[in-house]
Amino acid sequence: MKVEKMIYIYMAICISMIAYNCVYVFILRHQEKQLDKSAKKYYRLIKEQIRYMDIGIAIHNSHKKYLCKKLKRTSNLTAFDKAMEIIFEDTPEKAGAYLLEIYSVFAYLTMEYQGQDTVKTAYFPYIISKYRILENSEADIIAQIMFNMLRSDNVYCRENALSAIYSTGSSDYVTEALKIIDSNLSFHHPKLVCDGLLQYSGDKQLLSSKLWDCFNTYSTQMQINILNFFRFANISSDEKMYGILTDENANQELRFSCMRYFEKFPNENARAILQNFAENKENRIWEYQAIASSALKSYPGERTTAILKNNLSSSNWYVRLNSAISCEKLGFTYNDLIQIFDGEDRYAREILRYRFDRREAQKEAVMA
Amino acid sequence: MITENMTTIKYFYDCIGIFFLLYLIGYSTFLFLSVVVGASTLYRKKMQDKLMNKLTKNYFVPVSIVVPAYNEEVTVAETVKSLLSLDYDLYEIVVVDDGSKDTTSQKLIEAYNMKPVRRPIHRRIACQPEEFIYESYEHKVPLTLIRKKNGGKADALNMGINASQYPYFICMDADSVLQYDSLKKIVCPLLEEDNVVAVGGAVRPANNVDLYGAKVRKYRLPKSIIACMQLLEYDRSFLASRILFDKFNGSLIISGAFGLFKKETVIAAGGYDHSTMGEDMELVVKLHKYCISNNVPYSIKYATDAICWSQVPERLKDLKNQRKRWHLGLFQTMWKHRTLMANPKFGAVSFISYIYFLLYELLSPFIEVFGVATMFIAFLLDLLNVPFMLLFLSMYAVYSSILTLTAFFSRIQTIDLTLRVTDCLKAIMLCFFEVTCLRFIMAFVRLTAFKGYKKKKLDWGRIERKKINI
Hints:
With 368 residues, chain A is mainly α.
């Protein structure tokens, strides 16, 4: 009868799971109603305080104490968020002024949320970032705790804390945050860093100069993220980029990033070196030749044409493909490349013919 | 002599009893663990979403969607239409027509005003040659149609991989619909963790679901009882085993209906295998083997919220054919990668995942049918305690039904679908039949899977297609 007993135990647990499901549904529905109710309450409270502020009365300490007590619970914080969202939409300036006044509440809550379950902890920096709490204040306490959150194992915690830091518009905070992310052993995807930097709300030019100042203190991966950020954010850094491009000791991924930069922002100084890479007389790895062949689409000229024509016959697929794309983008016609179309290299002919077919199809699509 | 024989028979039945006892304890424990882990994972995920524990910005990882198609003239244009309405910016669609005998290619060319191009294919994995290629640039993302010589689904997928231009690809079925947010969701594990080489999506039966713009407008359980029972089975399987296996990087299956893969790793591992019917499972097992053998750090994830709506068979005949194919595919994969069995080099993949699939998937029809047969013989020999047997079986059925329902309701609640009361009642009633009737019918069907085995090798496995209105 041992088997029966075991199955009875399993059944008991399963029935509890069904009960849990039912209770969960009930709680879920109750929570939705409760959220609406609480949000209305917070809306009234905030509006009342804003009215006091309008007539020159500062926010009362009892209101701040109430918020400190209540907003420790995420259910209340979500209701507060819901109410703030509506007020922000109606009167953004007044809402901003109110948040500035209750800065001390957020400073207190930062400490409270730091020690909670990671899912709840990650929610708090989201609120800080959403309402730009760090933007216009002496935000050292909150910022320091945001830095601590960057050391978390939880990717959402780090990501939301990073968003909060980007919202400060402080280049010093951002450079510091990147150092912490860099030193953290947990994986933080390069795309999150690079695309995240694009959210930075402050002076991007100033940020770029700060990032260049401490460029050598970052790991290679972080350096690549920063170079990619410069490229995506259209931040001019020709001189520094050229320095890396011509530095034989620099990491190759950094040099590739610079090549892509000079493809987007052509610079006559880079022309010769890109052409040399595309020629590949030094027998480097194929990536140099492929990326340079792509970059040459921004450097029209006789030597570029000759190199691209030659690269169409490369044994490497990507070199051939990128050269054909560059030929297409440079606006070469069938007559310009007749030697290749009539030549014996089938691979060169095929890839070029495809790019020309594609160009025609794209033109037709635009016309349509 | 008779007494001696009876003693032998009793001894034989004692052994069988012990075997079944251990077998059922193993299965019920696994089922229990997986439902508990699955349900709690889903609830936690829901809480994470509510508290903005998600990557909210548009971090687009470039993805190629490969759609292998064979005689899909009824559904292919609508499938592409749904793919064009995905909430994602950086992707392309590559439809591979595997030498269809109907007008699959023509339907697509006309519907999307596609133009012929003379495109060379970078053939990194072997596949049958292309016959013609069409492209279209009039839409949100590039659309490519490759018509090739017939070679089977794996071959069509390999062609799609060769033709894809992005570092990640998604494989899906031509009769499936990806939910509008499924791409965003399926790429999330790539951003959250390092070394992810594959991500499986959640496949849900689309029968009787009203989809508009790749969004669910109205959710109803399928009208067909067979389809409805499959829905319960899918929920148990997707909720249960896949989330549990995901916890220790032990997933051996990513459904061919919706999975994302890192192209370079798949190519390095050799791509899809033409010789097996379960090419989806074979690829995942091969990825485990390749990465472990070459010391490549890797993980294979399961995105519970990346949803693909797929038609499931509504006729028993179609279902039987589908399950025979699946079982053959399972056998071929397990046999091909038999070195995984109890091999310490492969860790949990070997000792948990492989053993589970061997005992509770591949051999289960044999064991279950053997169990029924021995029970019948024991009854004839008057060796069976019939009341106890009935109690035991009904307890087991109730137990499985409750777990199935837990899985079903957890899934419904956590993906914000609302069910009518009649649908809830339908699910409650049918889960018992699924556990008792369908399961045993399928056990007999899977037993006969090896009949005509050689003929089916490159067969696409047809089920009756219905036009999906999107």
